[in-house]
Amino acid sequence: MPERSGGGLFGGKKRLEAENAELRAWVERLGGMDAMRVSAMTEALHVEHQGLQTAIADSTRRLREVERLIVQTEETVLLQEAGVYEYRHPLTDAVAYKERLTQVKARIKTLSKDGKAVLGSTNWQVNGSVAEGRRMVRDFSKLMLRAYNAEADNCVRTMRPYKLQSAVDRLEKAVEMIVKLGKTMSIHVSGDYHRLRVYELELTADYLAKQEEEKERTRAQREQQREEEAARREFEREKARLRKEELHYRSALSKLLAKGDEAGAEELKAKLEEIGAAVSDVEAREANVRAGYVYVISNVGAFGQDVVKIGMTRRLQPEDRVRELGDASVPFKFDTHALIFSDDAVGLEGRLHAALNDRRVNKVNLRREFFYATPADVRDLLQKIAGQHLLEYRDTPEALEWHQSIHAKVAG
């Protein structure tokens, strides 16, 4: 059949006449058909068209209803939309959340046991019997409560802090569905019970967020302890080396004095004074927990051209710390742009972090010391903050392993 344009077969009298003429021509080409049959065929098409329009409208209405009931639960989408998590009910620690959850669960159990979770009609009759009616309402209420609790328990079991709103929406839809299905007997979830289960979801999300926060803090503390222990061992090794050297020189000094070599003895005495000063410096460094090196490093192959890490170490050999950071967790070694010693390295590091706060890569976990900045940006900042402490700075990262890997890839 030829295609028809516009608003259908019957947009008006003129359109109808045009369509009839087209139909007659089409029928004649097929062998002939009288006008009455064409008119009947046209009327049938009209009725079919109206039926299709009605079906489309009904399907559209049902689709919108289903879309209204659908709650977005796709984790990837929820993660993309997740912002910084805000606690709904701030408590001191994960233990406090767990205790509160235990209290809430006990209250949920009590409401269910007392028949105050799902309510229904009190005057429903079955075959004229109020008792049978109450039994039916009670049985249906139990069924609805089981369905609601299944949805709530699943939300609790699969909870992630960023999924909280989605879980609450799902529970709201469950309430709406129970109202719809239990309409004839006025069956519905009680407001107190629903609020309690939403409170449970909020506490669960808070508990999981606090638990992860505490785990991250524990990880950071352990890392700090390992760093402090490594520094302590370095101090002990250096003091042991200096004392061994001091013993060697004292022994040599005694021999020179026994020989009467005053010139040689004076030279060794000067050396012993240097060693004594070095020991004092190491002990002072060990005692001053704020003294150390602030380092500025980058890893082009792992993080790109415009990302730097700014940290602090108390090690006597700060490059050891940099080498540790470039272990198996990243594909390439870090490049060092600056090592700045300061009696208050903790304060210097803090000032640098504060100045670059809006450029943090991780805006949630502030223990991650990566920033969107070039080495040159940090150099300019250091010249203002560190002043005379900034003796040497390298703007351009060598990134030797990364460049060699790119070359090998192209050559291959």
Automatic annotation (TrEMBL):
It comes from the Bacteria. It holds the Pfam family MUG113. The keyword Protein biosynthesis does not apply. Signal peptide: none annotated. Keywords: Coiled coil. InterPro entries: Phage_T5_Orf172_DNA-bd, SNIPE. Residues 56-114 form a coiled coil. Residues 302-385 form the Bacteriophage T5 Orf172 DNA-binding domain. The keyword Coiled coil applies. Residues 212-235 are annotated as: Disordered. This is DUF4041 domain-containing protein.
